[in-house]
Amino acid sequence: MVRFRCDNGKGEYDNGLFRGIIRASGISFEPSPPYTQHKNGVSERMIRTIVTKARALILDSCLGDEFWAEAVNTAVYLHARSPSRTVGGLTPYEKLFGVKPELGHLRRFGCAAYTLIPEAQRRSKFSERAKKCVFLGYVHETVKIWRLWDPESKRVIQASDVRFAEEESMGERQVSHGQDLGILRSCIPDMILEEDNSETAPIEDVICVIAPNTRTEIITTNRSEGIEPDAAGSESCTSRPEEQIVAVTTDMSDIRPADLPAPVLRRSGRRGRSAQAPKAMLGPGASNDAESDPLNYQEALQQSCYANWKHAMEAEFQSLIENKTSTYCSTVPVGAHPIGCKWVYVMKTNPDGSRCFQARLVIKGYEQTNIGDTFAPVAKLASLRMILALAALNGWEIDHMDVVTAFLNPPVNDAIYRVLPEGIDWLDPGKPASMTVCKLNKALYGIQEAP
Q: How far apart are CA 57 and CA 30, in angstroms?
């Protein structure tokens, strides 16, 4: 070890004993300045990776936050045995020790684990032989010992004679005020929440426990009928004076999909909105049943507004000629493959309600071969925010512009050929018949070299 880089935390690293050890070993101590975590970016990014994995373990197991330390230890253990691109696809464990790690002992975090009770600790010959615990993690340098949480003694134990039930989770998730209300809202049908002429209680007053392998049904019953919920762990929630919502939790482990009853749907009395578009979004003389954008050249020929599409294609083709994007060729070199192209159509609505027909000649870039790395240099959002802030501070005027042929300016260095577009016979009547392909001089829409 040559350098030791760390944050500016006081106590764990900034003390005389630790400084003396690294000084005696010839190690350079490089702490980062206060409140500058980005100076120690590699460690901070790894901390985020570990915390994200630990959070996923906690959420999947439905355990409480008091097990965060065990989740972090397990996340580090699993991360050391997961492939990483920084070490060439190997695992950190294999990179350090030179052998592949053993993975047969990995189990689901938070699942039920039954550990054998030693014979000396059994109360009698007919008492239970195993104890139900919660699996929390692993013991380093061994694959035959696991860390378990004993709910009876409220402590962490280590055991080797363990049987795991990974489909059974030992945690419960509490959904209450302000916590995961989206999950609770998705459980209640819209027909109950949107019933007309009724006063529904706030959804925040509903508290429901969701356990693994269970299904929660929301049903309505009339109080006057005297229907009581099932006594096996069901909870009732009052929503209206004449009705109540009952959340019935059913064990789903032994129920097959074919045995589930079909849900009974109740149609709401609320009127739906009309699917017609507002008149302001349609141009003069247009209706709601207007033709959609054509998907190809043949569909554009068959539409009633073909004259508009034809004018748009003429404008696009003229723009390509003015920018000298391609040159006609009669043949292509040996080994070269002409790339296909197609017309893309879109109809936009202007602020005044009129319609604008646009056509673009797009290259089928997925047919390109033997291309290198491509990238598109763009401005950061932070730079744009800084410019807008300066404009607001100094009272500058801000204007924007649209470059119609922005993609037609970058030159193409490689020899790329494309086929002639559909409609070339009337787009360019003076083209010689021997010219069957075009060599690209500048980038077009869809090409890999385009920005």
A: 34
**Averaged confidence pLDDT in the chain:** 76
Q: How many angstroms separate the CA atoms of 437 and 326, rounded?
A: 10
Helices (H), 344-420: 381-394
Tell me the C-alpha distance between 143 and 390, whole Å: 60
Question: For residue 236, what are the β-bridge partners?
Answer: 246
Q: Give me the torsion for CA of 446, 448, 450, 451, rounded to 10°.
A: 110
d(CA 402, CA 410) in angstroms, rounded, equals: 17
β-partners of residue 439 are 327, 417
In Å, how far are 10, 224, 412, 443 from 374, measured between CA atoms? 46, 71, 13, 13
Res. 39 pLDDT band, cuts 50 70 90: confident
Residue 162 has pLDDT above 70, yes or no: yes
Q: pTM of the full predicted structure?
A: 0.39
Is it the case that residue 245 has pLDDT exceeding 70?
no
Average pLDDT over residues 184-210: 46
* Rounded Cα–Cα distance for residues 31 and 33 (Å): 7
Phi, psi dihedrals of residue 92, rounded to the nearest 5°: -55, -35
Beta-bridge partners for 243? 222
> How many angstroms separate the CA atoms of 221 and 11, rounded?
62
The count of residues in the chain is 451
Selection from 221, 180, 254, 437 nearest residue 333 by Cα: 437
Candidates 164, 162, 218; CA nearest to 187 is: 218
Average pLDDT over residues 178-187: 51
Helix (H) or strand (E) holding 57: helix 41-61
pLDDT at 22: 87
Output DSSP code: residue 280.
G
Residue predicted with more confidence, 307 or 189: 307
Q: How far apart are CA 110 and CA 50, in angstroms?
A: 17
> Can you name the residues that pair with 423 across neighbouring β-strands?
none
Q: What is the CA radius of gyration of the chain?
A: 34
3-state secondary structure of 62: coil
